[in-house]
Amino acid sequence: MDLGIAGRSALVCAASKGLGRACAVSLARAGAKVTIVARTEGPLNEAAADIAARTGASVTPVAADITTDAGRAAALAAAGDVDILVNNAGGPPPGNFRDWTRDDWIKAVDANMLTAIELIKATVDGMIARRFGRVVNITSSAVKAPIAILGLSNGARAGLTGFIAGIARETVIHNVTINNLLPGRFETDRLMNTLKAEADKTGQPLDAVAARHKAAIPAGRFGDPAEFGEACAFLCAAQAGYITGQNFLIDGGAFPGTL
Predict the structure, then answer these.
(1) Model pTM score
(2) Of 113, 137, 196, 257, which is most buried, counting CB atoms within 10 Å of its CB?
(3) Alpha-carbon span 65 to 50, nearest angstrom
(4) In angstroms, how far is CA 64 from the centroid of its own chain?
(5) How far are the Cα atoms of 32, 109, 221 from residue 2, in angstroms, in the given order?
């Protein structure tokens, strides 16, 4: 399927690995010119070279901290006129809310809410002027089904979700859509590290821990990041102009609710 985004400029955050990288691959395969951002230069450059080799697309790496003014400025300068923005940032650490300080909350909100808003603010008017724009925010299934130990993430990402619900209705008349993708458990380094920590803590074999978590998912497996990337690319397609302000849960059926 031709997504109609060949030649469009895409900025993908936290894209050296995991779900961000999968989104960059799918957008590049669809013909977009992709700028990828992450903090660590080595893995980022490797990702850029790999994506370019696999897709034949133009891929520009920017080693920067997207949660800072300087990092955002560097990414935006490299990407030029951004037509497609994929907001993504690593989640804050788990814990007990009694132990979190104001600084912990500010850091979480800054990374998982305000950074996305700042990037939207920097790009949305240009999208409106060009009559094309797609913004996809990678949040978390915890927005739909909060997890107590992930309170920092629950709060910050829910705040972003509420903000998007309003602005997405204002921009769609200009063919600028804004949506959220809520991933469940995907087979990424982050998930594997979490499972390994659980295995170390409980003394169980890693395979047994992974199998128990997979058994709790109706699909019987963890998600493939490539599946997530393709969903992201479709929301960025020319054909997706009638979809805005939505929260797409991709979790293999783990959430049991109707809505």
Answers:
(1) 0.95
(2) 137
(3) 22
(4) 16
(5) 12, 37, 29
**Residue in the structure block whose two tokens are 């909060």:** 146
Which DSSP letter does residue 225 get?
H
CA distance 176 to 130: 9
For the chain (259 residues), the mean pLDDT of every run of 10, in chain order, is 97 97 98 98 98 97 97 98 96 91 96 97 98 98 89 95 97 98 94 88 93 96 98 98 98 92
The answer to whether residues 213 and 185 touch, using CB atoms and an 8 Å cutoff, is yes
Compute the C-alpha angle 39/136/146, nearest 5°.
85
Total length of the chain: 259
Token pair for 17 = 């690995």
Give CA–CA dist 188/23, Å, rounded. 13
Residue 78, both tokens: 């490299």
Token look-up 């209705």 returns 169
